[in-house]
Amino acid sequence: MKWPLLVPLCLVVEAGTPVCGNDEVERNLVLVEKVAYHKGLPPEAVSVMLEFAMSLRMGTTLCPRVLKCMIPATMVPQKAVVRAVVWLSVGKIPISTQVLFLKWVLTMFDLIDGKEQLRAIYGFIFSFITDENLCPFICHLLYLLTRKENVRVYRVRKLLELQSKLGRQPFLLHLLSLYKVFCPELVTLSIPSRMRVCTRKLHQMHILPACYRMNQSSVCSLQSGFRNHSLPWKSTLIRMVKRNDSQVASSISLLPAQMGSLLGSSVALQYLDCVQDESALLRLNFWLGYALHEEFLFCDGVTHNSEESLQFLNKLLSTQHFLQEGFSSSEVFLYKFLNIWDGSFLRPQILGLLSNIPVVPSSQIGQLLFQPLMQLFFTSSIFFKVGFPDRNMTLSGFKDSVIELIHFVGRLASVGLQLEGCHTLLLSFVLDFYETVCDTFLKYGLPLVVMPPAGVFYPALLATDPVSVDRLAYIMYRYKVNLTSAKSQGTVAEAFHISRQTFREFNHYIIIMVNCLWNSRMFQTSNLDMKLELRRQKLDVKSDCAFQDPKSWNWYLEYLFTQGWDGLQQFVQSNVSWKTAAEVRCPDVPSSQES
């Protein structure tokens, strides 16, 4: 169906043409509505119909009806929007219709093919702010258009005058807070801290890619205090964008100012990282917050297009890895999403985002992270459990929070190993985690050493597979290297978050391992504490096998070293006094001193 056949009447209709009883007009409008709600209107049709409605060629009756069916298939020409805004100054359009038009502009804002012409008439748009009926919507539109050069003293004064007249209205406060972000010296008004942070993240965001370009203004409403104005068009827009996604993607190319293009360009990301453009970073942060909330939170964790969501999260992860830091908007999203997440939907991507968030203060980490993760961990399958600890830790920020995080994972691992019967797969991933933890001081430069809990140590030591034992031996060797290095620097241990208790735990584990792997004294009466611990961990060891002949034992050990058991070799050489089989003598456990 070609548009030249649908809109000729709108082009030639004369002013004052009657509406009542005009069957030709009704037929054409019904046809326009049918196409608009089914396929959406092409850009040229949007221009024609918007001009027809706002010019009131056939009076005020048809204007609301036309506006309600103005559903673009791809984009909205900014020239048509500018002409429609100018029509507001004629004074013949009813207030209710003016409000409806502004709601339409706010809803379609990210589908407008450019904003330069709208910003060119910023002062003209600002003049409507004195109308109490239009003020909330004008403030919202200005909020989306404002640049630093638009902030002027007389505009700040006008907003303050309106505030004294109307009270501390949210729409006025948010526009003032945005002005204060750009020019703090011009706005002396005290803005609530929550509103300031929100404004810094949400201002000027007209950068959404095709798959997310259906409702930016409504998300801005939900997150920044402006009311949601998109309800008349929202469902139709979502359906239209999903249906025409490929067409939109091919017909809309992102401008250098549209930050959505950054996620697909390593060159642009490198430039952004180098120039540290605060405005660009804030807009990018808002876009991420919008997209994550709209796609995942506002639909209770169930998306309409899982493949689209997968691609989006993978691109976000790639961007964060390139920048080597996470975005604050994705951090806020995760704290909310964990409460509704089922633990399986896009699990690798969600856990990947978790690994990029900075460590939060220890007073908040329990409520924000530990509680929802603990519920997921204990109620999920073995495959979720092995996916949880296998993440790169973010070893930055507050040391106390890092310690709490390590202890938390240790508690989860201990209980998880009991629940899963010391499953080899889960134990392998837990040891992956502690291979990172044991080197926090030397490898990551974080001044702390945290030992694994007994619920992890004993299952690894008494594992039926030799690989786990070898890996535990390597981990304990690296713990010794880290502790020795910390002491050799002549720094007070407590300043490094390494307490005497840490040294006692290490020495205890070393004695247990040497008695188990070397001296065959593991289950003697003196090791009552160990027996009790094994009973508490519900571990059952049937016998203690060892060579009684020291020479045979040393020959066997040398054989193991030639078979690639490097962890065991490093552990024995660093903790046991021994010589080759030809120089056999009874080995002794070295005396490990506490700090």
UniProtKB/TrEMBL annotation:
Compartments where located: Chromosome, Centromere; Nucleus
Record key words, sorted: Centromere, Chromosome, Nucleus, Signal
Protein name, per record: Centromere protein I
Tagged with keyword Signal: yes
Record's signal peptide: 1-21
Main location (coarse class): nucleus
Domain of life: Eukaryota
Record-stated family: Belongs to the CENP-I/CTF3 family.
BP GO terms, sorted: CENP-A containing chromatin assembly; mitotic sister chromatid segregation
Keyword Chloroplast: no
Annotated Gene Ontology cellular component terms: inner kinetochore; nucleus
